[in-house]
Each structure stands twice: as C-alpha cells, then as structure tokens.
Specification:
This protein has 388 residues and is α/β, with parallel strands linked by helices. The chain folds into 3 domains: 3-147, NAD(P)-binding Rossmann-like Domain (Rossmann fold, 3-Layer(aba) Sandwich); 149-309, no CATH class; 317-388, Orthogonal Bundle (Rna Polymerase Sigma Factor, Chain: A). It contains 16 helices and 11 strands. The strands form 2 sheets. The chain has a 7-stranded parallel β-sheet with strand order 4-3-2-1-5-6-7, sandwiched between helices. It has a 4-stranded mixed β-sheet with strand order 9-8-10-11, with helices on one face. α10 crosses α14 (320-336) and α14 (320-336) runs antiparallel to α15. The termini are far apart.
C-alpha cells in the first residue's frame, strides 16, 4: 500500500532529504501536500516532480504566483497559517513536520487533533508545547514518529523491549564545531565559524543550536516527552564521530545503541517505513576506515551553558521551556545577522528565564503567550543595550 505523505517545510534541509527518500521509493510513498517559506523556485521544481494536490507558501502573493505558473493542474494553493493547517489536516496518512521554530507547533497540534500520525523533525513542538501535544496524542490515539537522529535511534533501541525495563537514555552529541573551546575563545567566534559543523549538514538555525549545545538541551526535553522518561534518566554524552546516534540502557545493564553514518535519510526512512526497513542510498558504515576510533566525553557545562539552561527550564516546567525556546529563536537570528556575539545567546536566555514568572502551559494559548512575552523581553533588552 502506498502511504500518502504531507511534507511541511519541503524546501528546507530535512524536507529535501525527505523528498529524496520518497523519490527513491515511488512504490511506497505519494506526496499529497508540500509547504514552503519563501523558496518558491525550489517549490516549483518539487511541484513538477511530485505533483501534490495541495501547496502552501508563507506569503499570499507567492501562492498566487505559483497558481498562475501551474494552470489547470488541479493543485489547491494556499498561504500562511491557514494553509499550514490545511496541509496538516489533509488526506495524508503521515504528516511530516520539518518546519523550523515555534511555527511548527500549531500544525502539529492540528494534525494530531484530527487523527493524523506525525513524523516529527520540529523540536520546538515538544520543547515549547510538550504537555499540550502529548495530551492530544494520547487522547486521539495517534503516533509521533521521531525523525531527529538521536530520538529515532532511541525509538529503534526500544523496539521489542518493555518500556518498564528502561534504566536510562544515553543521548549522544557531536560537540559541534567549538568542542574543546574555552570561554575566551568563544568570545571571538562568528556565525560563519558556527555554521561549519564537522559532521552534519543542517539548516542554519539548527546548526547554530548545535554549536551552542542548545540543540542537545532541546533534545533532552523532546526525549522526555516522546518516551515518557524523567529528565534525570537522560544522560548527554559527547561523541565527536557521530556514529553512535544514541543508546538505551536497561535494568539488566545491557545497552543497545543504534549506529550508522551521519545521514538524515536513515532516520527519515525508519520513520516513514515504520515497521518496514526502507532501502536508501546512504553510505554504509565502514568499520575499518582510516582512524576509525569511537570516543565519548562528558559535556562542558561551563563553556557551553545552553545545555544547563535547557535542563533548568525543563525541570521548572510550565512556561519556562516556551520562554527558553522563544528567547533562543530570537537570539540565534540576531547572532546570524552579526548583531550579537556567540556568548550573548546563553547570557540573554539566562536573563529571560530569571525574569520570567512561570505559569501553566496546558493550552496552546498559554504557550503562545509565554512565547510572545519572551520575544518582547529579548527585543526590549537588546534595544536598551544598543542605546547605552
């Protein structure tokens, strides 16, 4: 049976790799919806190749321009948040969320509440709105299929095992481009430096989050929600080679780890295939490659405080994770624009968390209010600093 797939964020890094997996398996998958931000040139190419029934862009004028370009195609063109909701609730068996940032939360909610399984590559969905989303997942009997390589590895390691036997999750991290740097050295790094990840090809925002280690903090929160495990049972381990994508230790002290080359097409294939292993064109792992040594280290909380900030927000709960995420989102954009330094990211997130008065986060409205507060707080703080 051919599975119908709706791809949210099809022109981004993950979205393009999703379509690569689908391209290689036309007898298994059919694209029914595609969404993009501003990259309408690439979207036009994807429309020509995959023939979706629904296409969504951020701006209305872009949707209208694409409609003119594809007359008589039978494609429905929409834009904005309404369009994303349509793509998330269309006639698809799996909604694949590869959006970046808080923009991914509402479409995930829409998909889950209308009974759709979601293949999730959008960390912010569970970081900011984990309580809301998981409540609806249980209520509607749907599944969240993880696409992040770490969570997908955990998903694979848990398959066929009793969840009650889990002792701890071992979440691996590459350490990013600045592994081993001192705080003094980090003062001078640029966005161009931070975007040179040693192992993975990712979008700009995720790559910066990897450099600050916030990405790993987000993944701890995400793992806690996905696998119903307390934060205390999740251990972060630096593994520079990115061969072990994560592991699970059971009560008998046995550890199962998932290994492979650093290629996102592997976890994408697992998520889309579910119980079926889908062939793809990833490079095989060469155990005997030159210098093939696997090493493991403890994280450096002093010079990379974003991980500790994420754990603090997770343990405090409520609206703290939403504030953490929103502040980080604004600050990463500012860093990429060259308006703040690398270490300003954790410093200002810490300032926002200390200023925030925590409240309940049991509804989407609660989450979005906290998100808006954090963005205003960071912008006001930045503006005050620039006037001095």
């Amino acid at each position: 049976m051919i599975k119908r797939i709706s791809v949210l964020g099809s022109t981004g890094s993950i979205g393009r790799q999703v379509l690569d997996v689908i391209r290689q398996n036309p007898d298994r998958f059919k694209v029914v919806a595609l969404t993009c931000g501003k990259n309408t040139a690439l979207m036009a190419e994807q429309i020509e190749e995959f023939h979706p029934r629904l296409v969504v862009t951020s701006a209305k004028r872009d949707a209208e321009a694409l409609a003119v370009r594809f007359p008589g195609s039978g494609i429905a063109f929409f834009s904005g948040e309404d369009g994303l909701e349509r793509a998330a609730t269309c006639d698809a068996e799996i909604v694949l969320n590869a959006l970046v940032g808080i923009a991914g939360l509402a479409p995930t909610y829409a998909a889950v509440t209308t009974g759709h399984d979601v293949a999730l590559a959008n960390k912010e969905t569970l970081v900011a709105g984990g309580a809301v989303i998981m409540k609806e997942v249980r209520k509607n009997g749907v599944r969240l299929l993880p696409i992040d390589s770490e969570h997908n590895a955990i998903y694979q390691c848990l398959a066929g095992n009793q969840r009650k036997d889990l002792r701890r999750i071992i979440l691996t991290a590459s350490g990013g481009p600045f592994r081993g740097y001192t705080r003094e050295e980090l003062v001078h790094v640029t966005a161009a430096d931070a975007l040179r990840h040693p192992n993975w090809k990712m979008g700009m925002k995720t790559t910066i989050d990897s450099a600050t280690m916030m990405n790993k903090g987000f993944e701890v929160i995400e793992a806690s929600w996905l696998f119903d495990v307390p934060i205390e049972k999740i251990q972060v381990v630096i593994h520079p080679q990115s061969i072990v994508h994560s592991a699970v230790e059971f009560q008998d002290r046995a550890i199962l780890a998932q290994m492979g080359t650093p290629d996102m097409r592997i976890p994408i294939s697992v998520a889309l295939g579910d119980t079926e292993r889908i062939p793809n064109q990833s490079e095989p792992l060469d155990f005997f490659g030159k210098g093939r040594i696997l090493t493991f280290e403890e994280p450096d909380p002093e010079n990379f405080p974003c991980l500790a900030l994420a754990l603090y927000a997770a343990k405090r709960g409520g609206t703290y994770p939403a504030v953490l995420n929103a502040a980080n989102e604004v600050l990463v954009a500012e860093f990429l624009a060259g308006r703040i330094g690398f270490l300003d990211i954790p410093d200002l997130i810490d300032t926002a968390l200390k200023a925030h008065i925590v409240s309940d986060a049991s509804t989407l409205n609660d989450v979005f209010k906290a998100d808006a507060w954090a963005r205003r707080f960071i912008w006001n703080t930045l503006q005050k600093g620039r006037k001095i």
